[in-house]
């Protein structure tokens, strides 16, 4: 205690011991009630009917199928989003073109839109009431209430995740290194892999980790487009809802404990990557040309 | 302007525009198109039906309550995490991101378990005569949980970068701590606070997964707008779903514009300061 960053300097505002202790106390109590307690209650409820029920829920074919589908959606959606994030960051930070700031705002849209709205919007593109739905149906292509719909909806909600980590960072790094590499005769790909990528790898991984967590946990958008067919189009979050409404609370919490574990690992990875300098340039920096000022 | 020698504009911009167009713009355009095909009278009748109005009311009021709570608690948490060092502060700092990392459905059933009348907190509150689960208060708590990190994470970097010399100057002029906080520190934090507030409020307006478990979902009292959209879909009333979803979409765009405006203001402020 007492080893504040001010060292031996005079106390700063709010450094009186009584105020300090009270504020820390209040904040810690609320953190415990609002953030820690939900995590604890998941593990307690998951094992409330004993280890056997927990194990039976996890190894039930429907649960295993839901886990498989969730992992599959992530395996497809995360790399595609990563490629998009890199392309968006490269075009926006390495070139000046008309409408660049507008493009930034459009990429951010999925952050503000309710997942339910996203799901409904996809219904009106690929559903039978939608723009392409009837044509696709004629050719026997099924997108909604099937796996492609789940993946598309996941891609919508996570579209900005990688881009928003890369754009402020690459903006701050400027174009000099890439221009030097190109003028020395390196190809575009060579420049990217040898010059740009080493500088952005941690931020890239940071975006990928957050994107993956969101894809695996997405509920609202996926619940609209999936059709909730047990053992077919049920992802893990949807399976939790199904068990919960089936009055199998212990089972629902058992399934939830897997996702909670993924969330905890995500946070550990996030902290580790932040130690490498990722995530330093924070959200407000997505507004164009702001990155220089954040540091 | 300098000539740009870097390659890959056509490829990277092409991929970006194609992806944004296909994944983001096309679906939203289809939704707007569907809602617009209703005609003004039908549209107005659906979006101003008493059930829809009641859902806007409970959604907006709960989101307001949650945002006000997070404004105070988020500021206090950011303050504690940047100004004070105590055992375990790093763990608390990491835990702040849990609401973003934890899937909303998981958060929903966990909060419900805590706040039902036989849950850990619900049973204590029930003795005091307060009912949380299946009431608007429950909706508010779910929104508090899911939008908590926004204000903490927008205020934290500004607090970290705050120049101690400003406080020292104010102290040497004889200002009390409260005066310095109110007249020196708070004005510097305001742009970041406002940006965090608008993000937090926008998120609360659209939240679905965490809420539906704890809300009770009674039409006219605890039915949020996002759920009403979902119910209209399940009734195969696609036009009504499109119309009400478009209201949420318009609200999201207004909040997005507001957030961008506040963030650019916040940045200008930082530069000048």
TrEMBL record, chain B:
Instruction: List where the protein spans the membrane.
Output: 12-33, 54-80, 100-121, 133-152, 184-202, 209-232, 238-258
Q: Does the keyword NAD apply?
A: no
Give the primary localization class.
membrane
Q: Where located? A: Cell membrane
Its record classes its membrane topology as: Multi-pass membrane protein
Tell me which Gene3D superfamilies the record gives. MetI-like (1.10.3720.10)
* Keyword annotations from UniProtKB, A to Z: Membrane, Sulfate transport, Transmembrane, Transmembrane helix, Transport
Q: Which residues form the ABC transmembrane type-1 domain?
A: 56-259
Q: What PANTHER family has UniProt attached to this entry?
A: SULFATE TRANSPORT SYSTEM PERMEASE PROTEIN, SULFATE TRANSPORT SYSTEM PERMEASE PROTEIN CYST
Q: How does it assemble?
A: The complex is composed of two ATP-binding proteins (CysA), two transmembrane proteins (CysT and CysW) and a solute-binding protein (CysP).
The family classification in the record reads: Belongs to the binding-protein-dependent transport system permease family. CysTW subfamily.
The UniProt function text for this chain reads: Part of the ABC transporter complex (TC 3.A.1.6.1) involved in sulfate/thiosulfate import.
The protein, known as: Sulfate transport system permease protein CysT
> From what organism does this protein derive?
Neorhizobium galegae bv. officinalis
Q: Which gene encodes it?
A: cysT
């Amino acid at each position: 205690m007492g080893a504040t960053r001010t060292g031996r300097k005079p106390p700063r505002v709010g450094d009186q011991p009584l105020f300090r202790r009270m504020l820390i106390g209040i904040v810690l109590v609320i953190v415990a009630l609002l953030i820690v307690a939900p995590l604890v209650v998941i593990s307690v409820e998951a094992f409330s009917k004993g280890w056997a029920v927990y194990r039976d829920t996890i190894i039930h074919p429907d649960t295993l199928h839901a886990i498989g589908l969730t992992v599959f959606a992530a395996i497809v959606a995360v790399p595609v989003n990563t490629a998009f994030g890199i392309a968006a960051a490269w075009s926006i930070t390495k070139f000046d073109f008309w409408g660049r700031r507008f493009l930034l705002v459009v990429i951010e849209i999925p952050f503000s839109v309710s997942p339910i709205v996203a799901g409904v919007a996809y219904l009106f593109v690929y559903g039978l009431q939608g723009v392409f739905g009837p044509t696709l149906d004629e050719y026997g292509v099924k997108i909604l209430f099937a796996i492609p719909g789940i993946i598309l909806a996941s891609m919508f909600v996570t579209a900005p995740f990688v881009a928003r980590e890369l754009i402020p960072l690459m903006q701050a790094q400027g174009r000099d290194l890439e221009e030097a590499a190109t003028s020395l005769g390196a190809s575009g790909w060579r420049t990217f892999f040898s010059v740009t990528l080493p500088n952005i790898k941690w931020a890239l991984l940071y975006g990928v980790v957050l994107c993956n967590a969101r894809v695996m946990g997405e509920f609202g958008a996926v619940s609209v487009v999936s059709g909730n067919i047990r053992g077919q189009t049920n992802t893990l979050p949807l399976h939790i809802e199904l068990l919960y409404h089936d009055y199998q609370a212990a089972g629902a919490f058992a399934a939830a404990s897997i996702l909670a574990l993924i969330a905890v690992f995500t946070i550990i990875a996030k902290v580790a990557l932040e130690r490498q300098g990722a995530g330093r340039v924070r959200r407000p920096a997505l507004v164009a040309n702001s990155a220089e000022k954040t540091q | 302007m300098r000539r740009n020698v870097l390659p890959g504009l056509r490829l990277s911009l092409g991929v970006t525009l194609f992806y944004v167009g296909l994944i983001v713009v096309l679906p939203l355009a289809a939704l707007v198109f569907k809602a617009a095909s209703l005609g003004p009278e039908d549209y107005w009748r659906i979006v101003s039906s008493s059930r829809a109005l009641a859902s806007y009311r409970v959604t907006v009021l709960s989101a307001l309550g949650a945002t006000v709570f997070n404004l105070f608690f988020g500021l206090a948490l950011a303050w504690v995490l940047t100004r004070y060092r105590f055992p375990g502060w790093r763990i608390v700092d990491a835990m702040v991101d849990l609401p973003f990392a934890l899937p909303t459905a998981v958060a929903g059933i966990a909060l419900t378990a805590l706040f039902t009348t036989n849950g850990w907190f619900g049973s204590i509150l029930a003795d005091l005569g307060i009912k949380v689960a299946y009431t608007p208060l429950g909706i508010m708590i779910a929104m508090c949980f899911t939008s908590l990190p926004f204000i903490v994470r927008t205020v934290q970097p500004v607090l970290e970068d705050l120049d101690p010399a400003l406080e020292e100057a104010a102290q040497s002029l004889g200002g009390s701590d409260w005066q310095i906080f109110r007249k020196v520190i708070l004005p510097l934090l305001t742009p970041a606070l406002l940006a965090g507030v608008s993000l937090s409020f926008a998120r609360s307006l659209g939240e679905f997964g965490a809420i539906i478990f704890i809300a009770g979902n009674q039409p006219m009292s605890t039915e949020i707008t996002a759920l009403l959209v979902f119910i209209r879909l399940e009734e195969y009333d696609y036009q009504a779903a499109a119309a009400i979803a478009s209201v949420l979409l318009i609200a999201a765009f207004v909040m997005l514009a507001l957030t961008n405006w506040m963030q650019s203001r916040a940045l200008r402020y930082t530069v000048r300061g």
